Amino acid sequence: MNELSIDEVLAEVAVLVKPHFGKGRVPDYIPQLATVPGTKFGMAVRTVDGGEHAIGDADEGFSVQSITKVLSLGLALNRIGDEVWTRVGKEPSGTPFNHLSLLEAEGGFPRNPFINAGALAVTDILLDKVKDPAALVRGFAGFLADGPVAIDEAVAASELDNAWQNRAIANLMRGKGTVRHDPEAVVAAYSRQCALTMSCRQLARAFLPLAAGGFSPLVQETIFPERLTRRLNALLLTCGIYDSVGSFAYRVGLPAKSGVGGGVVAVVPGKATVAVWSPELDRFGTSVVGARALEAFSQLTNCSVL
Ligand SMILES: NC(=O)CC[C@H](N)C(=O)O
């Protein structure tokens, strides 16, 4: 149906997104993130058969933030299996990613692993197994991306200095028993994990197992069992874009995860991963230009799973 090559599609996407710069806002609740120019734009595609395509600032590292929640969940599920689901749910939250009232109403049981409460529970679970969950996630990301990945300590410190809402979430959960370690240690580990710096190219590589039935064609290893891979994609499709996940599925039709650093990674099952970065966010915390770029990519390549 589509005659364009992936490089031609990326070039067209870069033109189509131009009118959408300036519509969102670079976040300032983590002050260090506010220093990044809103004009940045990069996009990378990695296909399961080894093709790699990139445009714009695709090789510039940025703070991947909540995108790391997919990696920490994958690690927790690989290590302790379904017991994870006794501490966190699988339903969309319909509320902002750092919301408290639903969490309190539901006895400290987070709706899903991709809102902050759920990710804090996953960090708490990983703390049972390792001293430094952020280093574990960093090592996993680097292994999957086939190259070193760093934690930006200035971003981590900037988040921790201002993590009052996440502290409230972790303390509420500690009171209910869904967090079991010292809430301060959990928030510190979570903030460092979120401060992972990766480029679009690295993200597209790292998420490739989700497009290839759990196998990484890049590092030639099975990373997740096939059934778990399907389930991770189901969670991404239903919970990966917070409380705008419905309209994102409507527009893009791909499992995806966004982060407040302006990154979005999407999975085209059986075919490819697509990572995009542009720092200006909508009011839900997803990159405006990133979501537009994925919408255009999905339409131009006809790759929606729906
Ligand atoms: N949506 C996000 O990327 C949020 C992650 C960020 N570290 C926070 O906890 O607020």
From TrEMBL:
UniProt-listed SUPFAM superfamilies: beta-lactamase/transpeptidase-like
Subunit structure, as described in the record: Homotetramer.
Annotated binding of substrate, by residue: 66, 116, 159, 166, 190, 242, 260
Keywords from the named record: Acetylation, Hydrolase
Enzyme Commission number(s): 3.5.1.2
EC class: hydrolase
Reactions accelerated catalytically: L-glutamine + H2O = L-glutamate + NH4(+)
Descriptive protein name: Glutaminase
GO biological process, one term: L-glutamine catabolic process
Organism annotation: Caulobacter flavus
